[in-house]
Amino acid sequence: MEESLIKTLSPLVLAHIGDAYFHLYVRTRLLQVTHNITRLHDLSAEIVSAAAQAKIYHAIENFLTDDERDTFRRGRNAKSHAPRKATVAEYHASTGFEALLGELFLRKNFARLEEICELAFKAALS
Fold first, then answer.
1. Domain locations along the chain
2. Which fold has domain 3-125?
3. Band of the pLDDT at 37, cuts 50, 70, 90?
4. φ and ψ of 81, to 5 deg
5. How far is CA 83 from CA 10, 50, 75, 91, 94, in A?
6. 30-56: average pLDDT
7. Is 19 labeled as catalytic in the residue annotation?
8. The one catalytic residue among 19, 66, 67, 70
9. For residue range 8-18, what is the model confidence (pLDDT) as tens digits?
10. pLDDT, mean over the chain
């Protein structure tokens, strides 16, 4: 995707892509932990929850560049619907985290995306 188009996308669109990527990353990565389908589902649901993603962001924020923090802030500050199973602050933080992942994916910065997701995964399990 062209850089000029990525810059025009809503942070919520970036978060939509980031959410899908993180779900797949977590599910794939969890195969190294267990093969029990119930356990896979329970662990992945826990890790990709808004509350967990908010904690993940706070655990990894010092590893992010200024540009990555700016993308997070754009996502966090985007207007969206009310959360169902998280606080408003957790929901906004998770949206920011997902927007960051979405932007990295669309920019095809796969090495950095993998690095951040691995940090996030380890933070979620600690």
1. 3-125
2. Ribonuclease iii, N-terminal Endonuclease Domain; Chain A (1.10.1520)
3. very high
4. -75, 170
5. 19, 9, 15, 6, 11
6. 96
7. yes
8. 19
9. 999 999 999 99
10. 95
